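Structure (tokenized):
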């Protein structure tokens, strides 16, 4: 991928397909701030890989490693949910290592985060023969204790960038759909979401590529590292 190029999801899928080695799983990370569109890109990319290139692919969301509400309550930290210390990063690194190293065909379970119950669901996804795992999450490139171990388990990482106003608009819609009032939403965005986004923005220099969504396509902003 070259800086300045506008590419479609199909183009991105073709690029990734050339990088998936025979005989083992390729683990692609998609990092970026909350509501940048990581889930959408990951889902569309995996679907294009399966359809256009006949490669089994699945999403491995980082959000499944949120600490439970009960754990956060015990920490007095439920209001800070989404910050780096509210994730089970040790469990995330261990599962990533299994995902990367397990022979194709061996079962590797993976949790998801349920936005209806606001808690993780253990082992909701099972990797077996999938040759591509798309790991998406905010803190894949964070250079902090334990989090810094994540990058070594990823073959390649893209940073999906977005303007603050886009992030805030999408977060507002997300929180309102989740049942929060407009006032609760404003507080959550100001006190937690946007500070988290700024922390994540400081990690983009560690990505292999920085991309941005433009009208359903993607611009390669620059090559990282």
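Design, position by position:
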């Amino acid at each position: 991928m070259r800086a300045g190029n506008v590419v479609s999801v199909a183009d991105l899928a073709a690029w990734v397909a050339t990088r998936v080695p025979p005989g083992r799983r390729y683990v692609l990370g998609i990092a970026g701030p909350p509501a940048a569109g990581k889930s959408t890109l990951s889902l569309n990319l995996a679907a294009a890989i399966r359809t256009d290139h006949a490669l089994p692919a699945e999403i491995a969301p980082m959000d499944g490693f949120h600490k439970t509400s009960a754990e956060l309550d015990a920490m007095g930290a439920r209001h800070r949910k989404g910050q780096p210390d509210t994730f089970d990063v040790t469990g995330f690194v261990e599962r990533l290592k299994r995902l990367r190293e397990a022979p194709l065909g061996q079962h590797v379970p993976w949790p998801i985060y349920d936005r209806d119950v606001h808690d993780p669901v253990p082992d909701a996804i099972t990797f077996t023969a999938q040759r591509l795992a798309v790991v998406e999450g905010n803190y894949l490139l964070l250079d902090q204790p334990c989090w810094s171990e994540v990058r070594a388990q990823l073959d390649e990482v893209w940073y999906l960038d977005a303007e603050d106003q886009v992030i805030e608009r999408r977060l507002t819609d997300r929180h309102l759909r989740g049942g929060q009032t407009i006032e609760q939403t404003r507080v959550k965005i100001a006190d937690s979401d946007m500070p988290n986004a700024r922390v994540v923005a400081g990690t983009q220099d560690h990505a292999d590529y920085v991309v941005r969504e433009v009208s359903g396509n993607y611009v390669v902003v620059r090559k990282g590292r």
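Reviewer-requested clarification: The chain has a mean pLDDT of 92. The two ends are 14 Å apart (CA to CA).
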